[in-house]
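Blinded run. Sample ID left blank on purpose so nobody reads anything into the name before looking at the predicted structure. Input follows.
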Amino acid sequence: MTNHCYIFIGPSGSGKTTLTNQLFSEKQKIISHTTRAPRPAEIAGKDYYFISEKEFKTLIATEAFAEYDCYQGDYYGVTKKELTDKLAAADCYNVLTLKGFLTLAENDSQQAILPVLLTANQATLQQRLSKRGDAEEIITKRLASAEAEMLSYKILDNHPKVIRIDANQSLTSMILSFKEQVQQA
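Blinded prediction complete.
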């Protein structure tokens, strides 16, 4: 049986990280590199590899990334080695932008990379962003971009194996929805 890499996509505050923390073990996480500052309680090497923009651009120049993107002014990227190692060991996952998923899927001859799309309304997003302690200006910026992001997700309508999660529901319901759809795939 082929291992799969589940790529969780959705606007900020849709519950991607909370959901993945409940579905997978830490060792299944593909750890991305980012130029973003760590949030409270985030640990370097566990949540992300936090690096400078200069270091990130060096990795781009050496073609170390399987995918990378700039989101909300910060760079995020998955190295080829990290993806290959995790996928060889077991099912794995990551949280990426739509562009990041599309880049990975483009080079996925095994069809091992599957999108998991979380959608939520503005009220749910605002509540969750406030709860995690983001600054008001960041919340406003992320809510403004969420609407455009939701429209861009329509491209996934053509993907035969997209897993769709209504992120307005409880965490328990989201977990059940994911597991049911994985079994049906």
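Unblinding after everyone has recorded impressions. The radius of gyration is 16 Å.
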